[in-house]
């Protein structure tokens, strides 16, 4: 997703290692309840599952929720501290046992687009998890500053997501 001259982009790659076999980690990501639990653990409110479709080898899930953000000063004019966020996730399991997916995140009224891809791969008795995130900020003149200011927020959010996933796996 290349940024136009009127947009700025942030691209981040996150990796995490689950000390659980890929079948356990896949079961978590394929379960809509784990996604709802993750968002609840992260402090999101008013969660509503708008759609879910689960098969043996795939998951499609759309969730809307209220999310409070610690908005950097440079972004305060463009992004509210309390937002309606809708995320759409698609996961599928391949014949080789690996799992991959893609997602979009829409923050209502914010001049930004978020999308990304996910991948799970067996790593011995553990599982390697990779998330590639691409955020476009559509704010003329200061979009680059806003995008750079959001990076620590995105990193903190992913750390919370990894923590929530570890908690789910420990409980199930």
Explain how this protein is built.
The chain has 172 residues and is of the alpha+beta class. It has a single domain, classed as START domain (Alpha-D-Glucose-1,6-Bisphosphate, Chain A, domain 4). The protein is 27% helix and 45% strand. The protein contains 3 helices and 7 strands. The radius of gyration is 16 Å and the shape is globular.
Number of strands: 7
The CATH architecture comes to 2-Layer Sandwich
The CATH topology is what?
Alpha-D-Glucose-1,6-Bisphosphate, Chain A, domain 4
| Helix/sheet category | alpha+beta
Q: In total, how many domains does the architecture comprise?
A: 1
The stretches of 5 or more residues where confidence is low (pLDDT under 50) are: none
Helix count, DSSP H or I runs of 4 or more residues: 3
CATH class: Alpha Beta
The helix content is 25-40%
Identify the quaternary structure here. single chain
What Rg, in angstroms, do the CA atoms define?
A: 16 Å
> Helix and strand string, N-terminal first?
EHHEEEEEEH
For the biggest sheet, the summary is: 7 strands, antiparallel
**Percentage of residues in strands:** over 45%
What general outline do the C-alpha atoms trace? globular
Sheet with most strands: strand arrangement: 1-7-6-5-4-3-2
What is the average of the pLDDT values? 92
Distance between the termini: 36 Å
CATH superfamily: START domain
